[in-house]
Every structure is written in C-alpha cells, then in structure tokens.
C-alpha cells in the first residue's frame, strides 16, 4: 500500500492538479466483475440487465445513462433505485489511492474524478463520499456529458471547465486504453495504476460467488502487511461464517435443544456465532476427553477410556497420568502403541492395564461439574470433530442422547451414531479429505481458546472450577481470531451478507494453506505447538546443515511435526508440490 501511495504523491509533485479514474482506481467493488453485481438480484435479472444495456448502447451514439438502460422493455418492471443502492453498498475505497488523495489534498492540490460510467454523477459522488473521498474538488462522468474518456473528449471537457492546461494535470487510472491513451489524446500525462498483488489465502474466482468472496477479501487486505489478522481474515473468516450459518440452520431443526460449544476447540466458532446471532443463548462446555477419563475409569467403562486416549505411543505411566490415576510400579514403563488400538493384542493388553489403574477422587468433581451444566436429552453439541468421541463419552456419562454438529468427521462417526444424531459440515472429496486431515491440527490450534486443556475439576468457594493444563500463550492466535471476527463483522454489513458460502468454498483457503503454504503463512504458523497427548511442533525444522550433519534427526523431527507439508516447505523453500508428495506417501 505504501509504495502505491508514495508513488502517486511523488509523481504528482510538479502538478497543480491530479485527476483519478473512479472504478478500480478510487473505488473497488465487492464483486468479481461489474456485471456480477446484477447477479445479486438473481440470475434472471442479471440476464435481462445485461441484454438491456447492450440494446441501449447499440441504439445510442452518445454515452448511455442508467435511465436509457432501464427504459428498455426487459426492465420495465424494475426500478433503477435498487441498482443504485447496491452500487453504493458494494463500493469500497481503494486504500492506497485514498491515502494518496488525502496527502495531495493536504498539499492543497486540486483533486478531481473522471469516469466513463452510465451511473449519474450524483450517484458516483455519493459512493465516493461513503468511502471517505470528501475532499474532491469536482468530477466529470461520461453519462452527464455524453462523451467518453477513451476518445479524449471527456478529458478535453474537463480541461475546458476547470480552466486547467493539460501540462498542469496528472491523471491516474487502471486502464491503458481509456485512462492512459485517452488522457494522452488530450495532452494529459497519465500514470497507469498497476494491478494489486494477489492476497494470500483467497479463493480462486470460478463463478459469481467465489469472485465476490475473493474481491471482498482482496479489497480489504490488498497492500496490507500479511500478519496474523490478515491470515485470520482470509482463511478463517469465510469458514467460520459458513459453519456458523450451517449450525444455525441445523438448530432450527432441533429447536428444543440448547446449544453447547465444546471448549477449547469451538471458542472462536462460538464467538462468531454470538456475533451473527446475538439474541440466541449459547453455552460453553469445558470438558475434554482427558477430563472425562477419571469418571469413566471409576465407572469401569474401559472401552470408553480406551477410545478417549490419544492415539500415540504412550507408557502406562503416561496413560495413568492422562486419567488422573496411579498405576502399579512394575508396569509403569510398558509402552503401548495406541495408534494400533483396536487390534486384538493391543486392545486386550490395554484393557488389562486399565483395570490396574487406581482413579483419584477427581471423578466426583467431574460428575458434579456435569450435573451443574445440566446436559439433557436433545441438546446440541458443537465440536471440531473426528470420530464423535466426546459426544459418545458425554452420552454414556450423562445417560442422554445429544445431537452432534461437527465441523468434520472420519469413518468412525457413522459406526457410532445414526446420521441424524451426528452431522458433519465438511463433506469433502477424497483428496481434499486427506489434505484436510493433514492440516487439521493447524486449524484446531487457530480456532481454539489459547489456554491449556481441561484436565480436571476442583471445588473453590462452593463452585466447581476447571483445572487446566499449562500452555504457552501465542500472540498470533489472538491476531488470527481477531481477523476472523473482523471478517464476520464486515461480511454481515456488506452487500454480500445474504450470500451462502458453500462448505467447499469456505474450506478452500485453508486447504491451500495446508498444501501450498506461502512464506508468510509458514512464518506465522510454523513455530506453533499443539497438544495431542503431548506437546508437538507444527512445522519447525532445524537448519538443513544440521540435518546433513545429523541425518537421523530429520526423520525424528518430521515424525514429530504435526504439519508435515509445512515442515518440508520450511526446510526446503522451493516451489515443489509438497502436497502431492505428501499425499502420495500417505497412500
């Protein structure tokens, strides 16, 4: 942003006046192309509106006006006022240019706008005012004068009416044909405004919806340093909006159920949901698989304890600590590969070991906490999801049936619940599904409350309080979540607020981040750690020279990394298809 602003101010130094093109120069629109604005009123209207403008232009030798377009038979039942309102709502300031205009105005230069446009000049002026351009000295619009920039005629009219000479004016615009060559025909020097660099973490513009989403993000982040807030805005924002709207729609089916967002994973989702639906009551359920284990162990529900344990290589001592229990010293160091849980020998051995554990009295506090929450039949549990384990544990402990609304799910879900009791937002094709799970620990870290996991409960001043594990606070997590909330606030007040972002479109920026991360994204996220039965780095390789000297450490560090594609991309920052390589290895 700074470069564009400074370049315009520097180039304008010797000129008395500076004039600007309007669309894609002073203003941006929150749509992929100008005609996509018509699509917001439906495909049928968009078709008629496009045909009407084409007819109006073919029958007029002068520049057409909005009135000419709406005079066509196709639009006889439509009013132009709605189009004007949508143009106003879709307009966003091009921030680097706005900053340049402010600087030029402060230098007491005369500043104008010149546009080839069918909209009335008053409408364009209103759009400019709404976007902060309250310092302009005047404007010239082709629909008011019947001549265009591209012929040079509108520039001649501008010079005549302002009394300026061509050599006193610099013109800035994004079109070589209309702006640079058109101005040259009137003897005015013009500077071509370069197209902005693509913003990291945006969707590909494939249709009107994806084009609008891409424009919305780029209009607010273009030229802005790509920090945690920008990443949260572009990657988490669309996903959270789409997921929360889906949750809201599902809630209408189960109106009697209260809605519980599972801590820590659903912290951001609950915040976005409350922003979108402020009148709805929601609850934050501070349990984890680990915090439920003591109660399960006390009730001798060993199969459920086994399901709750992390699927890692763990010693009996670690399993006991996870369950807030003690174990016999003679078996404390026995190692179990819980990734192979479900295989006969491992399952039998685990069951035998669980029966030797002595639970603490923490199970009583766990039960008291659940009683105070008052979960009941038909309540809704919102979770990031995989196999629906937490829902299964809660149902067993409380003797109830819940409705699970999960962001994602794996093959275990359909074996544990009927479809109507465990629904999944993200139903992805196989390749996207595997890529999502390759990056799921990143997503969980980004959207979770930045505190340690619930590991137990204790009574304090007559109330049950959550006992949390330790976790280092990471400032970038707060920034990411601020960015997602900023997206939600802006989307809900934009011209696009009624559009439904599909699940596939909502997850696209995240899948791009996981599979083809940009350098800034790697720097922001790579050094984070995640809790998964232990503390693991996301993607923090050592220097390549270190691995050349200690090759065995490379395999170890890659195994520990929870974002292996990111690990490889940081280790060897080359344009290699790490996502395809990783997925091929997983096969």
TrEMBL record:
GO terms of molecular function: hydrolase activity
Domain of life per record: Bacteria
Keyword tags: Hydrolase
Coiled coil: none
rRNA processing recorded as keyword: no
Source organism of this protein record: Subdoligranulum variabile DSM 15176
Name recorded for this polypeptide: HAD hydrolase, family IA, variant 1
């Amino acid at each position: 942003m700074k470069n564009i602003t400074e370049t315009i101010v520097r180039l304008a130094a010797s000129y008395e006046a500076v004039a600007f093109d309007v669309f894609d120069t002073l203003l941006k629109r929150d749509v992929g192309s100008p005609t996509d604005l018509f699509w917001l009123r439906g495909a049928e209207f968009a078709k008629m509106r496009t045909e009407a403008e084409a007819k109006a232009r073919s029958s007029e030798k002068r520049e057409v006006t909005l009135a000419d377009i709406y005079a066509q038979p196709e639009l006889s039942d439509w009013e132009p006022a709605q189009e004007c309102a949508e143009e106003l709502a879709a307009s966003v300031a091009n921030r680097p240019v706005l900053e340049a205009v402010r600087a030029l105005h402060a230098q007491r230069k005369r500043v104008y706008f010149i546009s080839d446009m069918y909209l009335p000049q008053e409408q364009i002026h209103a759009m400019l005012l709404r976007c902060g351009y309250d310092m302009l000295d005047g404007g010239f619009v082709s629909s008011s004068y019947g001549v265009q920039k591209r012929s040079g005629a509108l520039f001649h009219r501008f010079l005549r009416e302002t009394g300026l000479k061509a050599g006193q004016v610099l013109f800035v615009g994004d079109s070589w044909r209309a702006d640079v060559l058109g101005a040259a025909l009137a003897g005015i020097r013009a500077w071509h405004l370069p197209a902005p660099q693509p913003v990291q973490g945006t969707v590909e513009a494939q249709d009107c919806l994806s084009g609008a989403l891409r424009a919305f993000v780029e209009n607010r982040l273009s030229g802005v340093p790509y920090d945690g807030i920008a990443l949260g805005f572009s990657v988490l924002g669309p996903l959270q909006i789409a997921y929360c709207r889906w949750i809201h729609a599902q809630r209408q089916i189960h109106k009697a159920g209260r809605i519980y967002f599972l801590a820590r994973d659903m912290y951001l989702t609950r915040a976005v949901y409350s922003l979108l639906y402020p009148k709805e009551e929601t609850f934050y359920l501070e349990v984890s698989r680990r915090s439920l284990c003591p109660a399960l162990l006390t009730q001798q529900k060993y199969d459920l304890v086994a399901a709750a344990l992390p699927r890692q290589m763990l010693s009996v001592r670690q399993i006991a600590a996870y369950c807030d229990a003690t174990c016999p010293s003679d078996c404390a160091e026995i190692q179990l590969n819980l990734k192979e849980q479900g295989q006969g020998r491992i399952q039998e051995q685990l069951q035998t070991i669980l029966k030797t554990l002595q639970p603490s009295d923490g199970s009583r506090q766990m039960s008291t906490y659940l009683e105070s929450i008052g979960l009941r039949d038909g309540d809704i549990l919102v979770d990031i999801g995989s196999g629906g384990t937490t829902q299964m544990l809660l149902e067993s402990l409380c003797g109830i049936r819940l409705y699970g609304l999960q962001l994602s799910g794996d093959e275990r879900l359909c074996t544990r619940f009927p479809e109507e009791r465990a629904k999944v937002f993200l139903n992805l094709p196989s390749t996207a599904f595997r890529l999502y799970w390759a990056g799921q620990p990143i997503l969980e870290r980004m959207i979770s409350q930045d505190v340690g996991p619930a590991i137990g409960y204790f009574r304090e001043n007559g109330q049950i309080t959550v006992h949390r594990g330790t976790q280092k606070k990471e400032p970038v997590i707060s920034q990411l979540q601020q960015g997602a909330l900023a997206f939600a606030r802006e989307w809900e007040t934009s011209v696009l607020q009624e559009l439904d972002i599909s699940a596939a479109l909502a997850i696209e920026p995240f899948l791009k981040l996981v599979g083809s991360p940009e350098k800034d994204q790697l720097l922001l996220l790579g050094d984070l750690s995640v809790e998964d039965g232990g503390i693991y780095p996301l993607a923090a390789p050592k220097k390549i020279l270190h691995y050349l000297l200690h090759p065995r450490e490379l395999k170890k560090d890659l195994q520990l990394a929870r974002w292996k594609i990111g690990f490889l991309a940081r280790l060897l920052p080359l344009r290699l298809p790490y996502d395809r390589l990783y997925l091929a290895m997983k096969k």
